[in-house]
Amino acid sequence: MLLIDDLVKLPLDLTKKILEGMVQRVDDEMLNNEAAVRKKYLEVVQERENGQMDDEEYLVTTAFLSERLKTIKSER
User: What is the pLDDT of residues 13-27, one digit of tens each?
Assistant: First the structure.
């Protein structure tokens, strides 16, 4: 009986894991958590160092990310 229960629950468990992963990816893309903002900041710094971003865009982007990080910390 336990095996049958596991087989029945498997699709539900997989669906739950997939949806949780999707939510995490959306949060990361929307910069809704501290880790995502920090990751994006590191990407921006790397782009600047590689010459893929000019000074003005770098300053605007890092200012936005700093404000976003402050907002996230204040919401805790």
Answer: 888 899 898 888 887
